[in-house]
Write a structure and sequence with these properties.
three-stranded antiparallel sheet; two-stranded antiparallel ribbon; globular; mainly beta; 39% strand; single chain
Length: 89
Amino acid sequence: MNTDAHDTIFRLDYQPPPYLVDSVWLQFDLDADSTRVRSRLEVRRNPASSARSGSWALDGEQLELLAVRLDGAPLAASDLQRDAKALVL
């Protein structure tokens, strides 16, 4: 468990999300040494959002990224950004 201090986020800091998630499919392959998670998200732009950026951040820590696909096609490394806490598409 991560015990690092976190910045406070206030309710007024929140904005409508740029994308809406219509469905989520998850598959977990559990093993004593590792867990593999496959996911499929169906998303669409949120018309109520004022954000015009095409990027979308997915939070996650201590993960090994194996593949990312958009509409079934693999994304190139140049199409995404990663750091220790998030994947940005």
